[in-house]
Amino acid sequence: xxxxxxxxxxxxxxxxxxxxxxxxxxxxxxxxxxxxxxxxxxxxxxxxxxxxxxxxxxxxxxxxxxxxxxxxxxxxxxxxxxxxxxxxxxxxxxxxxxxxxxxxxxxxxxxxxxxxxxxxxxxxxxxxxxxxxxxxxxxxxxxxxxxxxxxxxxxxxxxxxxxxxxxxxxxxxxxxxxxxxxxxxxxxxxxxxxxxxxxxxxxxxxxxxxxxxxxxxxxxxxxxxxxxxxxxxxxxxxxxxxxxxxxxxxxxxxxxxxxxxxxxxxxxxxxxxxxxxxxxxxxxxxxxxxxxx
Length: 293
Hints:
- It is a single chain.
- The protein is of the alpha+beta class and about 290 residues long.
- It folds into 2 domains: about 1-120, no CATH class; about 160-290, no CATH class.
- Helix content is about 45%, strand content about 10%.
- The protein contains 9 helices and 8 strands.
- The chain has helices spanning about 25-30, 55-60, 130-140, 155-160, 160-195, 200-205, 210-240, 255-280, 285-290; strands at about 1-5, 10, 15-20, 30-35, 50-55, 70, 80-85, 100-105.
- Strands 1, 2, 3, 4, 5, 6, 7 and 8 form an 8-stranded mixed β-sheet that branches.
- Strand 1 (about 1-5) and strand 2 (about 10) form a beta hairpin.
- About 15% of the residues are buried.
């Protein structure tokens, strides 16, 4: 496709294209940012017009207005004037990138000679309740025209994300199992390590150490290990999080709230694993602690 810039330069352009009717923007709720939308007078006997999205303006005009410029699809095609700029959409789904797009006027079939195969209807309430009325409206124009695959936009978006949802469900399941194993493992290992120091605690108590002194000692040493483990785990999680970016929408792979909540949960379990056996050992009579060995 050839695009004519303001200085008369012709530039080759590769962009997404589709033909739409005059009510397309209103049906999908697309805002006109600059210029105008298609009008009733944009027919086959009128000057050829088109709309572009904001990404097109950024790509080929540096964000300046594209209204008034023109382009053509190939050397023998008619020149088409850009009359408006509309907001960006993600035609390929929520995770798709925003790309430059051109909207041709469906009534000017020589600019983009394809048959319009989809119909968008904006409704209040249950859209599928209008299905019979929509079919009758189409058949009143062409009784032989089939009307199939009537779906809501929410259903279309949901279907486009089916693979990502399945992958995320598996990932969440595995992550939950891994977190549970981590919690059980941390508690078991730390509490066992602290309980093995019963004789040490008895000796410290016999030498005059108070129960609070023993608890502070255990917690201080435990917190140092917890801090080291969290630092290593956070670094590893941050390094691996970029592999999840293709499965996420609306949240960053390095979401601070997720990292903080998981870190706090693991820390709480590790602190409990230090506190409970240390408190139990500190409350036992030193003589009994020494005789147990």
